[in-house]
Amino acid sequence: MNVKNLDAGVVARLAEQAEAEGMSQQEWIRQTLRRSTARLSPAELLRSRAETNPMGDEEFAMIRQRAAKRREAAIEGLGARQRRR
Q1: Strand ranges, E, within 18-78
Q2: Domain-by-domain residue ranges, the chain?
Q3: What is the average pLDDT value for the chain, to the nearest integer?
């Protein structure tokens, strides 16, 4: 792959980032591209969201209850006093 017509500022910034990480510019760019392609693009994210059913109130309430129980157990495990609400 060959990228042409990059702004000089972009090239300089990539060089700074690579140097700060102690690697070559090529390796820095490879790793940056790997990280970028591991994430969904905005279009892919929108498409996946459209295919997902929203969580219902009942399911949300169950998840909140489980989280509250885990939080209480963690507090007890640490020997900390519970907060007053």
Answers
A1: none
A2: 1-52, 55-85
A3: 91
* Distance (Å, whole) CA 32 – CA 13: 13
CB atoms within 10 A of CB 28: 19
Can you read off the two tokens belonging to residue 84? Answer: 């007053």
Q: Please give the Cα distance from 41 to 36 (Å, whole number).
A: 9
Say what the pTM is. Answer: 0.53
The encoded tokens of residue 21 equal 């990480």
Radius of gyration for the chain, computed over Cα atoms and rounded to the nearest angstrom:
23
- For residue 21, the one-letter residue type is E
Q: Check residue 23 and report its DSSP letter.
A: S
pLDDT on residue 82: 56
Contact of 27 with 18, CB cutoff 8 Å: yes
Tell me which DSSP letter residue 24 carries. Answer: -
Q: Are 45 and 52 in contact (CB under 8 A)?
A: no
Contact yes or no for 13/25 (Cβ under 8 A): no
